[in-house]
Amino acid sequence: MPGSARSVRFVAAVLLAMALVLAGCASTARVAHEAAGPLDVVTLNLWHDKQDWPHRQDMIVAELRTLAPDVIVLQEVLQDVALPNQAQVLASRLGYDYRFFSVDAPSQARRYGNAILVRGKIEASREVKLVPLDDYRNAGWVRATVQGRPLNLYATHLHHTPEGGAIRAEQVAGVLELIEATAGDVPSVLGGDFNTRSDTPELTALKATFAEAHAGQDTNSPAHTTLNTHLGHPPERIDHVFVQRGAFRVVDARIILDQADAAGAWPSDHYGVWVRVMQSDVPRR
After folding, report:
1. Which sign, positive or negative, has the C-alpha torsion 249, 251, 253, 256?
2. Which residues contact residue 195 at a Cβ distance below 8 angstroms, ignoring those fewer than 6 apart?
3. Do 239 and 44 meet the contact criterion of CB atoms below 8 Å apart?
4. Which of 20, 28, 96, 162 has the most other CB atoms within 10 Å of its CB?
5. 196-213 b/e with 16+ CB inside 10 Å = b?
6. pTM (predicted TM-score)
7. For residue 51, what is the DSSP state?
8. 126-149 pLDDT, tens per residue?
9. What does the domain layout of the chain look like in residue ranges?
């Protein structure tokens, strides 16, 4: 056989072997990835220490123990002289790692902000203040390992007035700057109280790379309200979980913590949002 023909066949055999190895690796990676299972995320506005917080805390803990989400994103988290940090208490009772984010100085006794709780290990965190600074808003990030996989998790709580769309848009830009600075090639999930529906102009920039995690439903209908209408709020969904487009597919989602107990007490003046997603192949940035 001529040497050139043997060389061609040898190269072809090597390329075929490499292709089979790569295909096997990809298949193994997909199997390992699916074995990690779904990712469950909850976002909830705690309503700080309003009404009977110890009783409301018990209601929230009972529901979250049952659901056992991988990630819990909290807003309106408070600590004070006679009030232990609410996120710390919930994390301790549930057995989660956590980070608390506040624009208030660490030296202050009274601090207010957001938190991320993780049923896993938090390896890094960062927080940023959002403009305007006199609005006292922030965004927080943690890099965590959950079910053996790395994740970026973000929390925020945006400006609250109905006419404040321009302010919220500026704050969304700040959140996106934090994401750009920290995400890298790791998939990202963002939860919080956005104080607006998901279809408003101020969230347009966010939705270019993030999708609301609520499978195929009109989440802005009154049936999906996250404001507790029994406590006088209008039926509006302003609490959202967003997942990175191309990195996750939504499996299930629903409203939680939306029932009063026998005595008529409510867990919060917001309902919680629970979502289940599966991680897809992560797009390179």
Report:
1. negative
2. 157, 158, 159, 160, 164, 168, 238
3. yes
4. 96
5. bebeeebbeebeebbbbb
6. 0.87
7. S
8. 999 999 999 999 999 999 999 999
9. 1-35, 39-279
